């Protein structure tokens, strides 16, 4: 027995292994983890690295103290905009095929652009925002201004991007790099550097950021750490039609955590524990979760599972149907077959809306079509990826050594109704800080 942390409690987690063969119904992941070879996925497009020089950590972490503290009135991440009913899948595939192929669209700085500094982004704001809408992501490459926290803030303010909280701020998955500049540290933790992060939108059934700005301050010192990005419209357009329809018709549910109790525990104690977690812990994650025992077939496993949602959604601005689903990241079948550094309590899975299991061949098809459209971006210091979070999915490859990337999340700047007026950062900070301390405590490559 080992102990893992979930929310405000330490939970005993029983770990066991079995060598039972894989069948069409997926076995509990613990039955597979000791026998499978873990292989890092490939990508459809792999650009070359460039040796752009960065700043020292002291320099790139320095905030401009003459600017106001943005965290004092920081907006909540907006509620997810769902528009998934009545989508014609054949028409959606046809429209996706006509979209621009470049994702991300690369904008490379010239010497003259860098001399302009902030002025370049003020002059080109409308162009950059339009390209972001058309392509789903823009790779700002070779710019000097965003090589630091203060310069990145100048850039995003020049583009009129409106900061907001991470949709999972209270989960502790990220901590602030600079709270006053509303810039989060990306997943750089040494304990997770050998963990492959699959494609996902920064989204839950409840909350979704409108845009993101991913910035590199220091690339991995010993290799790896490419940023992964893929067009959700293109994934939809290339997915096997029968599977796409099946997923759309049955919808999906995503489990976000496992809590293992001894199977011999009396039923009344199991129910009491479930009610305690449901009432005291789950609400602090600001997600609509249902606590369900043994959804994956493992005796004694209590899973925190999101509400039913559509894997396809219309883009709020363009109306384009897109693959709006985090299955490539969260499917346990895929996680068990690639580098994974998450403790059991943090392992995830994806079910059909009725809690039926996806077959291995269905998981493999999601893997195939997702990775076909991945561009594995080699980000150098100062490089920024602007992402339309409703159109484009992102992830991160494994790395070695030390790495420092950061991300800013942004709300709808031109639609007050969509962005809302919630300000709840302070009440969410406690759990964020607790979980981050736990993750920082974990040994490297545990």
Features:
TauD-like_sf; eight-stranded mixed beta sheet; 21% strand; 446 residues; alpha+beta; disordered C terminus; oxidoreductase; oxidoreductase activity; 20 strands; single chain; signal; disordered N terminus; TauD/TfdA-like domain-containing protein; four-stranded antiparallel beta sheet; Double-stranded beta-helix
% residues in beta strands: 15-25%
Low-confidence stretches: 1-34, 430-446
**Tally of DSSP β-strands:** 20
User: Roughly how many Å apart are the termini?
Assistant: 16 Å
- Mean pLDDT reading: 87
The profile of the biggest β sheet is: 8 strands, mixed
Instruction: Supply Rg.
Output: 21 Å
Structural class: alpha+beta
How does CATH name the architecture of the domain at 55-236 and 377-441?
4-Layer Sandwich
Look at the structure and give the CATH class of the domain at 55-236 and 377-441: Alpha Beta
Helical percentage: 25-40%
Q: Write down the overall geometry.
A: globular
Number of helices: 14
What is the fold named in CATH at topology level of the domain at 55-236 and 377-441? Answer: Double-stranded beta-helix
GO molecular function: oxidoreductase activity
Domain TauD/TfdA-like: 123-405
InterPro entries: AlphaKG_dependent_hydroxylases, TauD-like_sf, TauD/TfdA-like
Pfam families: TauD
Descriptive overview:
It comes from Triparma strigata. This is TauD/TfdA-like domain-containing protein. Residues 1-16 form the signal peptide. Keywords: Oxidoreductase, Signal. Helix content is 27%, strand content 21%. It has 446 residues and is α+β, with helices and mostly antiparallel strands. α2 crosses α7. The chain has a domain at 55-236 and 377-441: Double-stranded beta-helix, CATH 3.60.130. The protein has 14 helices and 20 strands. Strands 3, 4, 5, 6, 7, 9, 18 and 20 form an eight-stranded mixed sheet that branches. A four-stranded antiparallel sheet has the order 8-19-10-17. The protein is globular.
């Amino acid at each position: 027995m080992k102990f893992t942390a979930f929310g405000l409690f330490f939970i005993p987690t029983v770990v066991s292994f079995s060598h039972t063969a894989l069948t069409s119904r997926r076995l509990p992941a613990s039955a597979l983890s000791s026998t499978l070879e873990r292989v890092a996925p490939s990508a459809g497009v792999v650009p070359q690295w460039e040796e752009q020089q960065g700043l020292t950590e002291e320099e790139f972490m320095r905030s401009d103290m003459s600017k106001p503290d943005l965290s004092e009135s920081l907006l909540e991440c907006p509620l997810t905009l769902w528009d998934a009913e009545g989508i014609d899948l054949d028409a959606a595939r046809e429209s996706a095929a006509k979209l621009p192929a470049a994702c991300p669209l690369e904008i490379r700085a010239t010497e003259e652009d860098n001399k302009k500094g902030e002025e370049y982004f003020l002059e080109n704001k409308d162009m950059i925002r339009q390209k972001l809408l058309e392509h789903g992501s823009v790779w700002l490459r070779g710019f000097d201004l965003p090589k630091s926290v203060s310069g990145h803030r100048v850039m995003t303010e020049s583009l009129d991007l409106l900061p907001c909280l991470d949709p999972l701020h209270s989960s502790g998955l990220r901590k602030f790099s600079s709270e006053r500049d509303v810039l989060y540290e990306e997943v750089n933790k040494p304990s997770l550097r050998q963990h492959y992060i699959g494609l996902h939108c920064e989204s839950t059934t409840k909350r979704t950021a409108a845009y993101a700005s991913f910035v590199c301050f220091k690339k991995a010192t010993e290799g790896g750490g490419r940023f992964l990005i893929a067009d959700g419209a293109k994934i939809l357009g290339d997915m096997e039609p029968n599977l796409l329809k099946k997923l759309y018709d049955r919808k999906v549910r995503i489990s976000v955590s496992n809590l293992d109790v001894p199977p011999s525990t009396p039923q009344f104690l199991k129910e009491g524990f479930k009610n305690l977690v449901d009432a005291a812990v789950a609400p602090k994650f600001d997600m609509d979760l249902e606590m369900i025992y043994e959804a994956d077939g493992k005796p004694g496993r209590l899973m925190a599972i999101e509400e039913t949602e559509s894997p396809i959604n219309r883009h709020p601005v363009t109306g384009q149907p897109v693959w709006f689903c985090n299955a490539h990241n969260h499917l346990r079948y895929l996680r068990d077959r690639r580098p994974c550094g998450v403790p059991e309590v943090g392992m995830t899975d994806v079910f059909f809306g009725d809690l039926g299991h996806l077959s291995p061949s269905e998981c493999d098809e999601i893997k195939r079509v997702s990775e076909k459209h991945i561009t594995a971006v080699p980000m150098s210091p100062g490089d920024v990826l602007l992402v339309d979070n409703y159109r484009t999915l992102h992830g991160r490859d494994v790395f070695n050594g030390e790495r420092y990337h950061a991300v800013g999340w942004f709300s709808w700047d031109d639609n007050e109704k969509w962005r809302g007026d919630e300000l709840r950062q302070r009440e969410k900070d406690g759990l964020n800080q607790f979980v981050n301390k736990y993750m920082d405590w974990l040994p490297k490559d545990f």
